[in-house]
Amino acid sequence: MSKMANDYNAINLSQGFPNFETDQKLKDLVTKAMNEGYNQYPPDSGIKVLREEISKKIKSLYGKEYNPDSEITITSGATEALYCAITAFVNKGDEVIVLKPAYDTYEPTIKINGGKPVQIQLKGENYKLDWDEVRSTVNSKTRMIIINTPHNPTGTILSQEDMLELQKILSETNIILLSDEVYEHLIFDKEQHQSVSKFPGLSERSIVCASFGKTFHNTGWKTGYCVAPEKLMKEIRKIHELTVFSVNHPMQRAYVDYLKDPSTYLDLSNFYQTKRDLFLNLIKDSKFSYTPSKGTYYQLLNFSGITDENDVNFAERLVKQHGLASIPVSKFNINEKDNSQLRFCFAKTDDTLEKAAEILCKL
Ligand code: PMP
Ligand code: GLN
Known about the structure:
The chain is of the alpha/beta class. Helix content is about 40%, strand content about 15%. It has helices at about 1-5, 25-35, 50-60, 75-90, 105-110, 130-135, 160-170, 200-205, 210-215, 230-245, 250-260, 265, 270-280, 310-320, 350-360, and strands at about 10, 70-75, 95-100, 115-120, 140-150, 175-180, 205-210, 225, 300, 325, 325-330, 340-345. Strand 6 (about 175-180), helix 8 and strand 7 (about 205-210) form a beta-alpha-beta unit. The mean pLDDT is about 95. The site of 4'-deoxy-4'-aminopyridoxal-5'-phosphate (PMP) has 13 residues, from helix 4. Glutamine binds next to loops.
């Protein structure tokens, strides 16, 4: 969709990236690191001082202490962390439960490793998970469950009750939990992010993936990390070494200093909530219907009040005829059934959101 947006010179609210700059202070720290000579391979698991900073951050936010030496690895974005986690543990014939709609790398990675994705649909307007369905889907072949909160593309979040249900279901099993928490700092309306790291019965069997790109407005730097108990991390690191070996050195160095100021990530929810509210306020008189996003920088809009076209056709027409790009939600879903919604990324300047809303209000 980004290519189509460029080809048609359209406003691009499709792919999830900000159209504003990362903090100059952070860029200066990268330049400083380069000038100080941090330009050769860092250790494969990432530089120790950064792993230590991440450990402190997680301890202060979620109360769980991960050992920087053996339980934290810096990765080339969350994408690589997800790839390594699935590849390390999923083998031929293993089942992996995926909650649909789902981010698009999970299922292909499961299949590359010979595993079988088993899909459970999130239901209703609020995309709720039916825990009885999870309970009845789990069986002796289930190797892993993948969760994602806040959730791309729906903007829903898992609650504390959800996490406790999951903890109960997994307690008698050897199932590994893969928790994609790349939007942990984008959560709205005073809700709290429920990291699996907060729940001892979950964290002991979990791999948590995070992304600096989402948090610090620099998705192109492709820097993230994963945390997991030592026995799991040992296996993930074997795959990580073979995949990228190590991750760019100067950026790692820069984050060591940058993470020391928690306001760099704690202010993010307010920042994005203001953008969500602006966008929704601008389109409140349009023919779209919606439930406000509770987290991430995405907003789903239902267009059944405008046309009965499917979402792929409507998204294409929106770019070509009206100059606005979005993502058709069926691309994240099962059997393309949920096909009257589009995903809009509101990580954009106010000016861009205003121009996009003007188009949406005319439909
Ligand atoms: N998981 C989800 C749910 C995402 O939306 C993204 C977005 N890119 C990723 C993982 C990958 O993150 P990264 O850009 O750090 O590889
Ligand atoms: N996570 C972003 C999205 O969902 C983009 C990642 C990508 O394009 N691969 O739009």
